[in-house]
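Closing statement on the adenosine monophosphate sub-project.
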Amino acid sequence: MNIVKTKKGLREKLDEFRAQGHKIAFVPTMGALHEGHLSLLNKASTLADKVVCSIFVNPTQFNDPEDLKKYPRPIENDIVLLESVGCDVLFLPEVEEMYPASGEEDKDWEIDLGVLDQVLEGKERPGHFKGVVQIVYKLFKAVNPDVAVFGQKDLQQVLVIESLIRQKQLPIQLVMGPTKREENGLAMSSRNIRLSDIGKQQALALSQTLARTKTRIADWQKGNGTLAEIRVKAEEELKAAPGVSLEYFALCDRKTLLDATEETAPKDLVGLVAAWVDGVRLIDNSILDPDD
Ligand code: AMP
């Protein structure tokens, strides 16, 4: 695997690949890689000839300085994992490479995210998606990929990137990979490293409530009950779960992330949750299509 730390080094390597007619897929990450990331890299290798992964803990998308400070950075293990899935290039820039100290930051990444920046993660983490757009646009310009693969684990982020690609008319195919889970249902996350054993058990309440919600949606589709009742039930369960401090539970239209209504097509329904366990903020979601 080629490890490059500068945009110039990256361009040279990728120019070589392109000259050989290779198609390039890109998976941006913040490192502390787990099987979820690796599943995206495996998907990427089925979609293109060469796979580029970036590891960059982007300071501008952290609205909580403590979270940034505590973010795990096990780079040597990450490199071993990337080698194991045959990643071709690791782009590993320092902060100064992406945000030059000259302060001559171009603002051409700025886009209007509309509602996406005002609901759920946008509402709870002010400035987060602005930071995401800023770095992903810089990374897209540096890598210039044919395909970019993102995880459903961060569904709202996928919609934000979709909007970025559309507004900037970037010639990039966006592909979403499913959420990889532990056998017990816990969504894999780099932040899970910070959970105690008890916390890992308590965190199961998120995926379990989403699973129960999916069953209730199948019932709703048959004409039983209302979405409002299903929302309340999920909220009650999560609020009663030991060690879980609920931030939000939402039932939305997965294309817009606006609140779902009784008229929303069942195939478009998604349940999303954010909660704190052990001082760690966790998110999860599930597409609730009863036929899925
Ligand atoms: P992160 O390193 O957390 O910024 O995540 C990098 C990419 O991996 C994003 O597209 C995430 O949505 C995706 N990702 C994170 N966790 C998972 C998971 N459990 N399954 C699949 N993809 C994931």
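The beta strands are 2-4, 24-29, 50-55, 89-91, 147-151, 173-177, 244-253, 269-277, 280-287. With this model delivered, the sub-project is considered complete and its resources will be redirected to Aim 3.
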